[in-house]
Design a protein that fits this description.
Transmembrane protein c2orf18-like, transmembrane helix, globular, mainly alpha, membrane, 75% helix, transmembrane, 160 residues, 5 helices
């Protein structure tokens, strides 16, 4: 079945809406666990991370391996090859561990905000983080080096 432009745009909007509903539901459930059940943010982060890792290892990655694709051994995602590459390149291993650590801290502090305040506050702070990254990009471009950062787009500037 082929999609036209309008159908594709509508489909993408619906997918985006679904993602927002799932994300909002997750935050509400996290707030319930943190406040009504008085769980510590580390406990919630650890539980989410453990179940996420288990789901990826036991279900998602094996399924992706057996879907035909252009990766090694003609699979869509060859996780065994990825693990081999990570453990045979020290810099890649360091970056993977740093990424894992940064996500753990990000999730912990997000849940700490949710426990202290509310999920609404967490969402607003997250939106401000995006704005801060954009402002820093502009600052780097105009104040330091035009090879880095991002110029202000006069057409879509404030929509960025």
């Amino acid at each position: 079945m082929e999609y036209g432009r309008k159908e594709m745009a509508f489909s993408l909007k619906m997918d985006y809406l679904k993602v927002q509903v799932v994300s909002a539901s997750q935050m509400v459930i996290e707030e319930m666990f943190l406040k009504k059940r008085s769980l510590h943010p580390l406990q919630v982060v650890g539980t989410e991370g453990s179940f996420g890792a288990l789901l990826m290892i036991a279900v998602v990655l094996p399924v992706m391996y057996f879907i035909p694709g252009s990766d090694v051994n003609n699979s869509y995602e060859n996780s065994l090859d990825a693990i081999y590459q990570i453990f045979n390149e020290p810099r890649l291993l360091v970056f993977c561990l740093l990424y894992l650590l940064s996500i753990a801290f990000y999730n912990y502090f997000g849940l700490a905000v949710t426990k202290s305040l509310t999920a609404v506050h967490r969402t607003l702070i997250d939106a401000c983080r995006t704005i801060l990254v954009w402002v820093v990009d502009l600052l780097i471009f105009y104040a330091f080096d035009k090879d880095f950062g991002e110029p202000f787009d006069k057409t879509y500037g404030l929509l960025q």
